[in-house]
């Protein structure tokens, strides 16, 4: 939420370690950063209207295209950022199916460390992601501790390994049709069936339209 935030610094360190692991395996990788602070008003409007504007939709599209996600949030009053949760609330339920994810958070006290397992992990389980065994939490005293570096390296190794196996495609290619998808969702893989044709008599009737008689 601030510039520069501790959450962003933690994400950057983990991102670089993951890139190092992927590059070491001969896998080129690029990073796309989604900062929610500049999108706060867009997210609030989407919560009310149900429709993201072009800037917010562009961020959602980048998230949908990702092969892996590093999700980082500050912890306030024993809970994740409200802006982070609001962004998750507007996502299609199918957007992150089988995507490898590292969960990370920062807080002003080590007492907040369990928020990752108490709130973030169930949230991403609902989104049907594949979270790494290692999550990351950093309190102020952790930044100078070598143990944080060790945890970052471990999480990066796990994320890179999951990306390398192509686990997302292996799951969605064979099982996509077995999920209960959100109607008209925008989270379909390239191998999915063609989009539903909404401009038909049946679909117009289903959405409250009228059917004109034809001779």
UniProtKB/TrEMBL annotation:
Signal peptide: none annotated. Keywords: Flavoprotein, FMN, Oxidoreductase. One of its GO terms (molecular function) is oxidoreductase activity. The keyword Membrane does not apply. InterPro entries: CE1759_FMN_reduct, Flavoprotein-like_sf, FMN_Rdtase-like_dom, NAD(P)H-dep_FMN_reductase. It comes from the Bacteria. Residues 4-143 form the NADPH-dependent FMN reductase-like domain. This is NADH-dependent FMN reductase.
